[in-house]
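Regression report. Comparing outputs from two consecutive submissions.

Submission 1:
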Amino acid sequence: MAGTGPGAHRVTLITRDGCHLCSDAERQLAALSDELGFELETLDVDADRARANEYSERVPVILIDGAEHGYWRLEEARFRAALQR
């Protein structure tokens, strides 16, 4: 099962309804999740005021283990390297 082995990471995608970049990032991350062994969680930026205050202008935002990794577009090579740490 993804996300349960040693070195497994938790990846969170902060999204917004109607955001095409969010849809692109979610599709890419879903395709990578089985291969790389991480669990993908999605959160709506507008569902929480504190989250909206922090991330609203940058969605989609990718977090790895709770730390911000990147926003707007998934840079696959950089993402893969981050999961190797």
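Submission 2:
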Amino acid sequence: MKRKIVVIEDDQPILDLMGILLQKLGYEPVLIANGLDALTSVRADPPALILLDIMMSPLSGWEFLERLRTEYNQREIPVILFTASPTVPEKMKKLNDPKVGILQKPVTFDELRAAIAQFLE
């Protein structure tokens, strides 16, 4: 059975590309365009991993992560943040969550494979 990875990204071309890349890596991608829908999906059926865009609306990636960890008490699901923002590494230090990683956009196939392997293999 393929492991499920939820991708939360509001840019449709990036969301579609991530789905293709995850399929090539042998995972089952679940593509969701906003954080609110993703919270509902993850609570109903927790994935092996979440790939999370930071700059989204109506719920930012940071807000999604906070709600996932506190309100939904999902602390064991690994989350990889992917963003073009240069301020994310600073916020990551303050977060101090060993189950959270980061990928800077644009993400290459090899970087994606390595980041996922870090949490799932």
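Expected: both submissions complete independently.
Actual: both completed, but the second showed a warning that disappeared on reload.
Relevant detail on submission 2: Strands lie at 4-8, 28-32, 49-53, 79-83, 100-104.
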